[in-house]
Amino acid sequence: MKKILLAALITFLGFVNMNAQNIQFGVKGGLNFADIRSNNANNAKTVTAFNFGAMAEISITDKFSFQPELFFSGRGFSIGDDVVALNYLSLPLMAKYYATKRFSLEVGPQVGYLLSAKRESNDIKSNFKDVDFGVNMGIGYKLDNGLNFGARYNLGLSNINNIDNTNDKIKSGVFQLSVGYFF
């Protein structure tokens, strides 16, 4: 995980050096609507959590930009009244295409590092893998004053189940709504 984060940071700094005059830094936060896909948990329900963090938008051309982000992301699922809360440090690397001056289409990979996992007040982090890989797809709208809005879906690609002696594959899914501000 450290090597992945280091490689992403080096890539990010390389883009910053190439386009230092075309970079904006910002913060964002919002709501997550998270669930799982599993071959044994068909009755799993969506849980609501939050996300917040930092981002940078690096303009490549008038139509294309690169947006790395680093943020806290609450995820999980519920079965009946039992809620499993999964907290991740997420690193999405988004390619953005501006269809109009303000409206963008976004796509990119994401790696998430599991910070904690709880069921009621019990620590169940060992039941889940430390790293979750996924792909994001979304839309954004940015105002001239720096305020921006986004809607995104993160499709988990890796099996996050770490329980021995089970073949149950668990993959996460998160719909995110966010509001941000570029300085």
Structural commentary:
This protein is mainly β. The chain has one helix spanning 2-18, and strands spanning 23-38, 47-59, 64-79, 82-98, 103-119, 122-123, 131-142, 147-156, 170-182. Helix content is 9%, strand content 63%. Strands 1-2-3-4-5-7-8-9 form an 8-stranded antiparallel β-barrel. It is elongated and about 55 Å long. The model has no long low-confidence stretch (mean pLDDT 91).
Mean pLDDT reading: 91
Contiguous low-pLDDT stretches (5 residues minimum) are none
Treating each run of at least 4 consecutive H or I residues as one helix, how many helices? 1
Reported for the largest beta sheet, the result is: 8 strands, antiparallel, barrel
Keywords:
eight-stranded antiparallel β-barrel, 183 residues, 9% helix, Porin, mainly beta
Give a nutshell description of this structure.
The protein has 183 residues and is mainly beta. Helices cover 9% and strands 63% of the residues. The chain has 1 helix and 9 strands, in the order H-E-E-E-E-E-E-E-E-E.
Secondary-structure map with pairings?
Blueprint: H1 2-18, E1 23-38, E2 47-59, E3 64-79, E4 82-98, E5 103-119, E6 122-123, E7 131-142, E8 147-156, E9 170-182
Antiparallel strand pairs: 1-2, 1-9, 2-3, 3-4, 4-5, 5-6, 5-7, 7-8, 8-9
